[in-house]
C-alpha cells in the first residue's frame, strides 16, 4: 500500500507541475529572471545554469531561457551554457525516473514477456534511440528525460545520446541573439530566419522518420526472438 501511495503521490506532483505551465505566466517570470541574471556580472553564468537546471527538472518550459541566453551571453557562450545546463538537468530528471519509478515499471512488465523483450531491445540500442529522439522536435524534451529513466537504457548511453540536443540548442540561441533586448523575446519582433526554420524542419523530419522506423524494427526483432524462445524453450 505504501508503495502504491508513493507512486500516486509522484504522479500527482508531475501532473501538477505540467498543469502549472497553463496557469503561471512563465514568460514574465523567466524574462524577469533573465533581466536579473544580465546584471549579475561574473556570477551570471553560474546562476543561469542553476536556474535552467531547475526549470528542466520541474518541467518548466525552458525555451525562453534558451533564447535569452543568446541575448545575455551571445551565441557561443550562450550555446555552451544552455547545453551544460540542459544536459545536467536532463540527467537529474533521468535519475529521478530511474531510482524512484523504475522498480514499479519492472514489476508491471514482469508478467508481460513482450514488453520485457522490447524494453531489453531498447536498452541494447540506447544511444541511437536517445540521439534520434533528441534531434526530433515531436518528442518533448522534459518528458523524455523522465521517460528514459523508466527504460533499461544505461545512464552512459543516455548522456551520450543527449548530445543530440546540440544542433537545436545552437540554432535557438542564435535566434535569441537576434533580439534587440530581453523584452522582445517571444514576440513577433524576433523572427526566425527562413534558412534556420527550414534547417530545423528538415533535421526534425529526418530524425522523426528515422527513430520511428528504427524503434519499429528493433521492437519487431525483439518480439520475433521472444516468439522463437517460447516455441523452443530449450533455447533459453
UniProtKB/TrEMBL annotation:
One of its GO terms (cellular component) is plasma membrane. Keywords: Cell membrane, Membrane, Transmembrane, Transmembrane helix. It is a multi-pass membrane protein. The chain crosses the membrane at residues 6-24, 36-60, 72-97, 158-178, 198-216. It is found in: Cell membrane. Pfam families: VTT_dom (PF09335). It comes from the Bacteria. Residues 60-177 form the VTT domain. Its main location: membrane. Belongs to the TVP38/TMEM64 family. This is TVP38/TMEM64 family membrane protein.
Amino acid at each position: 500500500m505504501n508503495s502504491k501511495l508513493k507512486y500516486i503521490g509522484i504522479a500527482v506532483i508531475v501532473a501538477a507541475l505540467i498543469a502549472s505551465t497553463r496557469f503561471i505566466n512563465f514568460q514574465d517570470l523567466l524574462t524577469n529572471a533573465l533581466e536579473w541574471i544580465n546584471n549579475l556580472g561574473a556570477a551570471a553564468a553560474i546562476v543561469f545554469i542553476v536556474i535552467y537546471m531547475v526549470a528542466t527538472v520541474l518541467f518548466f518550459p525552458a525555451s525562453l531561457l534558451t533564447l535569452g541566453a543568446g541575448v545575455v551571453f551571445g551565441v557561443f557562450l550562450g550555446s555552451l551554457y544552455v547545453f551544460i545546463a540542459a544536459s545536467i538537468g536532463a540527467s537529474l530528471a533521468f535519475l529521478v525516473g530511474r531510482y524512484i519509478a523504475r522498480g514499479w515499471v519492472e514489476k508491471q512488465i514482469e508478467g508481460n514477456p513482450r514488453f520485457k523483450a522490447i524494453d531489453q531491445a531498447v536498452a541494447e540500442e540506447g544511444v541511437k534511440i536517445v540521439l534520434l529522439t533528441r534531434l526530433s522536435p515531436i518528442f518533448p524534451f522534459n518528458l523524455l528525460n523522465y521517460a528514459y529513466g523508466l527504460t533499461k537504457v544505461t545512464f552512459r548511453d543516455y548522456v551520450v545520446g543527449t548530445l543530440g540536443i546540440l544542433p537545436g540548442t545552437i540554432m535557438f540561441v542564435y535566434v535569441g541573439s537576434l533580439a534587440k533586448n530581453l523584452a522582445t523575446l517571444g514576440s513577433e519582433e524576433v523572427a526566425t530566419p527562413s534558412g534556420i526554420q527550414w534547417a530545423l524542419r528538415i533535421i526534425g523530419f529526418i530524425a522523426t522518420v528515422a527513430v520511428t522506423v528504427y524503434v519499429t524494427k528493433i521492437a519487431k526483432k525483439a518480439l520475433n526472438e521472444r516468439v522463437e524462445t517460447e516455441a523452443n524453450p530449450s533455447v533459453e
